[in-house]
Amino acid sequence: MKSLLIENSTVKGTVAVASGEEIMERQEFTEAGELAKVIQEIFLKVGAPDEIIVGIGPGSYTGLRVASAMAIGIQLALGCPAFGCPSVFGYQEVSYHVVGDARLSAVFLASIEDQRLIRGPELVPAEEFRLLRTKWKSAKVFAIGLIPGCTDLPIVRPEAEYLVRCRQNYVPSLEPLYLKEPHITPKRS
Question: 60, exposed or middle or buried, with CB in 10 Å at 0-12, 13-18, 19+?
């Protein structure tokens, strides 16, 4: 089975094709508009997929919508199944925490243990996250971008190729995972 994997929840997206869990092809892109071009290049190299898996967030509103829309279009054109997978599974590690700035003094937080979601993704006040973090001691914590007040966290973004290992977490919907209603926020200074 050949799987097309799309992850576009952060400022840098990835697309991969896997045969089973073996990655056949992988490409990065930085603009949502590049996604179609990257997928076309990959299809020319390895052919059409048998299924599509798309990271559904949480993350960038625009990036998630573009990835879901692209997956729906390909699914309709090819007649193949498509699944959503929370983007927080897009990491090489099997046990870790993922945090992202949700603005307005909040973060989203997810905890994964043995490739299973044990907490979240959920919104938590930034202060609560900082307190939780002191209890975790040596646990791996990845930030998808800068987290105010936590500049020591490594910024590690989810990548498409790791979604293929998490089949037990797939959902039949490609609806992006939003933790709050879309809103306009001022640009950070």
Answer: buried
Q: Residue 134: how many CA atoms within 13 Å on its side-chain side?
A: 5
pLDDT digits (tens, 9 = 90+) for 81-136: 999 999 999 999 999 999 999 988 999 999 999 999 999 999 999 999 999 998 98
pTM above 0.85, yes or no: yes
Q: Where are the alpha helices (DSSP H) in the chain?
A: 35-46, 61-78, 126-136
- Are 55 and 6 within 8 A, CB to CB? yes
Q: Structure tokens of 134?
A: 């002191």
What is the per-residue pLDDT across 132-150, written as a single tens digit (0 to 9) for each?
Answer: 998 988 889 999 999 988 8
Q: 3-state DSSP call for residue 39? A: helix
Q: Which of 117, 113, 107 is nearest to 87 (CA)?
A: 117
Angle between helices 35-46 and 61-78 (to 10 degrees): 40
* Whole-angstrom distance, CA of residue 163 vs CA of residue 132: 26
Q: SS3 of 136, please?
A: helix
H helix and E strand count, the chain:
3, 9
- The residue extents of the domains of the chain are 2-87+158-169, 93-143
Q: Which fold has domain 2-87+158-169?
A: Nucleotidyltransferase; domain 5 (3.30.420)
* The token pair that represents 146 in the structure block: 């800068």
